[in-house]
Specification:
Elements lengths: L13 E4 L5 H12 L3 E6 L9 E2 L5 H14 L5 E4 L14 H22 L8 E5 L11 H21 L5 E7 L5 H4 L3 H9 L9 H12 L10 E4 L10 H6 L11
Parallel strand pairs: 1-2, 1-4, 2-3, 4-5, 5-6, 6-7
Helix pairs in contact: 1-7, 2-3, 3-4
């Protein structure tokens, strides 16, 4: 039986999460359910034995069907977590236009479609969380992925402005290097270099992200909208100069007097 105890800040709220079959999305769905929400987990490839509805975020017909189902079943939707995303690691001179477009379809157009179809079901006090990336705050080299996350920043800012008068908040979370299936495909050298640029000196976990998502969907953040919150161990805070700072730290060979 659900209660309105402070540990259940989302009791009675219907919240949709995309990309929720595994990894970060699955952790967010669990956290939302534990906070009392009716978490509608969706994924383009749901786990066979999981409680996850199939949704291709690039398909307008899929969003139309989901919105109709939610309207019929619940009447309202109180939250949306646009978590689904794909990575494509080609560099500027290598990426094909079709791959560039495919990444944008998932990472930028998918959230746009979600907002367009579910915002009409949202009463005042509802909230949307878009999951960006530390790549959206930097010139990270995989051009399709980085450009798509920068595009999502634009969608988020405009949505916060347009939906604010209706009492709907829109915020963006920018994870850094988080241990998931997606990052597991990166090379050891990439992982080592990224952690080396992270002031906290470690990678993140899905449980570093999920509590913030819960907070941003709850009434505790009722005056926060249009915000962009890095959850990256300080990776983007130093503007790329950590390695320089480390190199010239007193006592290193480069700074010792001959």
């Amino acid at each position: 039986m659900e209660s309105d105890h402070p540990t259940h800040p989302l009791t009675g709220k219907v919240i949709v999460i995309t990309g929720a079959a595994r990894g970060q999305g699955a952790a967010e769905a669990r956290a939302l359910a534990q906070a009392g929400a009716k978490a509608i987990a969706t994924d383009v490839r749901p786990e066979p034995d999981g409680d996850c509805r199939r949704l291709d975020v690039t398909s307008e017909s899929d969003w139309t069907a989901l919105a109709a189902e939610l309207r019929e079943t619940y009447g309202h939707v109180h939250g949306l977590v646009n978590n689904a995303g794909v990575i494509q690691r080609d560099r500027l001179g290598e990426v094909r236009p079709e791959d560039f477009a495919d990444v944008h379809a998932v990472n930028a157009t998918g959230p746009l479609l979600g907002i367009q179809h579910l915002a009409p079901l949202m009463p005042p006090g509802s909230a949307i969380v878009n999951v960006g990336s530390s790549a959206a705050l930097t010139g990270y080299y995989p051009v399709a992925y980085t450009a798509s996350k920068w595009a999502l920043r634009g969608v988020s800012k405009i949505a916060a402005m347009e939906l604010g008068p209706r009492g709907i908040r829109v915020n963006t979370v920018h994870p850094g290097y988080i241990e998931t299936e997606m990052t597991a495909a990166a090379t050891p050298a990439f992982r080592e270099a990224t952690i080396g640029e992270t002031p906290l000196g470690r990678s993140g976990t899905v449980d570093d992200i999920a509590p913030l998502v819960v907070f941003l969907l709850s009434d505790a953040s009722s005056f926060i909208t249009g915000a962009e919150i890095p959850v990256d161990g300080g990776l983007t805070a130093h503007g790329g100069v950590k390695s320089i700072s480390d190199a010239v730290r007193p006592g290193t060979p480069d700074t010792q007097t001959p």
